[in-house]
Fold:
Amino acid sequence: MRHRIVALAVAGVLAAAVPAGAASPEPVPGYGYGDSPPPGPTAPPPGSALDGEAWAWTQLTSDGTQVRYVSTDSSHSCPSVKYTYQASSHTDPLTRMSTPSTTSQFPTTVCQAEVPLTASAATLVSVQAARLHPSSGQLPLPKWTLGTRPARIGVIGDTGCSLPTDMNQPAQDCVNRWPFKQIAKSVVDRTKPDLVIHVGDYLYREDPGRANDKAANPGCRDFSDRASWACVVADFFRPAERLLATAPVLLTRGNHEDCNMSQTGGAGGAWFRYLADRLRSNESCSLFSGPAMIRAGALTIANVDSSLADPGDDGDTAHQGTWTTQFNTVNRAAAQAPGDVFVVTHKPLWMVKAAGQNPGAVTWATQVLDGAVADTQLHQLQGKVRMVLSGHLHLAQKIDFDSTRPPQLTFGNSGGPLDNGPIDNNVELQSIGTPPQQVNESVTKLLAPGGLGIYGYGDLRWGGTTWNLTFRDRYGDPLGSSCRLSRSTDHRNFVC
Structure:
């Protein structure tokens, strides 16, 4: 949650979100999807040696499930993907989305392809890179159908190794004390997920020169390398390699994937080039993105970009109308959803950071998003929204209100330096939000009440009629008992 302040004026109108399979909207100024993809791949010269390294994964987007592929090989070509069906197979080429940029930040070719709904397996073929991750070339596909939903979901957030430019702030020990690789392993081994949701903040290497793992990361070794593809690999892809080979992912933008002053390149440019809902072939970065409505069978996930909400975490409510427009879009789409809806957004709506002795007031985040929801036409989130998943604060927390307001879950404890949390007993029965509502239950996973958080992740499981939540530590062991989400829309809470 290391804060950034973007000193730029904001203009434009939000792009409307589009459910998977629907026609794409025309780009809206300030919220465009990038220029057209480059022409198709060119074949490597005959007899040329393989070189470079490639990473592939499966990502849920508003345009459906996609195979994504990024390579540094010199052929600048895209592989094909062989899909297996019940009694047949078919091979399709990936579409090239971008080629190496003129700067050193993006020495990559990016390719993607939409996965057919009926495919049961996907394997990359005709790969020109010398090394491929995953080495088998086999990519995970959704295990659900249009009428079912992911049975097991791992939720992680704020995963990068923190290397601030401010020398007065400590550099995280990326070799011995950064837990993300262990957490990713535990999600695979203990949760065995059908889907992994990342609630934002991937790129923490603001000054790679401060890292103690530089030997393992060529191309991510000094300040000039920040937000390079090599640093994206170091901060996210390498520690998450097993995770990416196990389940499809849904990715949310965090405030560390922000725009620089020129809105070109930087961490935000890397986000839109590699990880965003819709990829760009240039180096542009938009301050805001329209909400993406993403289907995972009968579960709909509203992916809301809150990366610029309250940049200094000081109660700033600038651009509240921007998010009101976004949440109006979410509410309209949620009303048409076939089943449950999750709102996933990096900055939480009602996360409690601290609480004084009763009846002392609580300190909570993020008021600009809470106010935006209150200003919507419904003055709340639509009734099908079952929960809000967020990060940003480096803690694991559940807040519910036993009302029509959905529970707020925070999973910001998967990698970056941990924060101190509130004393839960001092939070309960105090009022937060607009309109103010009493907290029914606050559960924050801390070493001691009011003390430091505990590294780990969230484990959500569909029990056939409702969702069950377990907070787990870095090794996958439960942090307390599991909680069961009520089925009532008027009394929404997790019973632990």
Summary: Residues 1-36 have pLDDT under 50 and may be disordered.
